[in-house]
Amino acid sequence: MTADARAFADRMARRRSVRDFATDPVPAEVVEAAVRAASTAPSGANVQPWRFVVLTDPEHKRRLREAAEAEEREFYARRASQQWLDALAPIGTDWHKPFLTEAPVVIVVFEVHQGPNSPKPYYPKESVGIAVGLLIAALHHAGLVTLTHTPSPMRFLNEVCGRPPEERPYVVMPVGFPARDARVPDLRRKPLEEVMIRR
Ligand SMILES: Cc1cc2nc3c(=O)[nH]c(=O)nc-3n(C[C@H](O)[C@H](O)[C@H](O)COP(=O)(O)O)c2cc1C
């Protein structure tokens, strides 16, 4: 049991957010299995308030990138506070989002609120966050890479994905293989002694 738990932790420690994608296709069945794993997440009152829109059509991805880059240009030029820009500086991100068209798959996750065909959710943010965590773990386990991308604001995603207003965009996740020359920032994870308190 201990060996399995440690092996899983070691495997998860090798996960990184990737922003440079190869254009190689990924098996649809693998993405489907990862979404199935995500949808096993616990949720407030078991409402399961999530929707995963899987985009593979180049035209959909092109529209998504165009709209996201328009928002991000505004964000980096005007909307972000200096404090926020300073926090982003070590990661090296800017308004260019090539991964939205280069990745073979882009999953747009929605948080589903009360509507004509959906009940009121309880703790929707927490529930969808947990489901996204499982999705990230499942994709990593399958040998794929992804990025947790949060364009700000995100409402344009309803139109691009053809989803009703009670579904609120939560996160955009390009999925695929890393580009041959992909690089990731040299980040440090907090040690266990700092994040885990034993009493
Ligand atoms: C809620 C959330 C939002 C994020 N939004 C973005 C984003 O919009 N763009 C981006 O490049 N990275 C984004 N990230 C990725 C983080 O920068 C990344 O997870 C962090 O730097 C740690 O790196 P790692 O995932 O490789 O461990 C986001 C991560 C989270 C959890």
Automatic annotation (TrEMBL):
**Domain Nitroreductase per the UniProt entry, residue ranges:** 13-176
For whether the record's keyword set contains Transit peptide, the answer is no
UniProt keyword list: Flavoprotein, FMN, Oxidoreductase
Has UniProt tagged this entry with the keyword Oxidoreductase? yes
Q: So which domain of life are we looking at?
A: Bacteria
Pfam families with a match to the protein in the record: Nitroreductase
**Identification of the protein by name:** Nitroreductase family protein
Provenance organism: Actinoplanes subglobosus
Q: Which lineage ranks, top first, belong to the organism behind this chain?
A: Bacteria, Bacillati, Actinomycetota, Actinomycetes, Micromonosporales
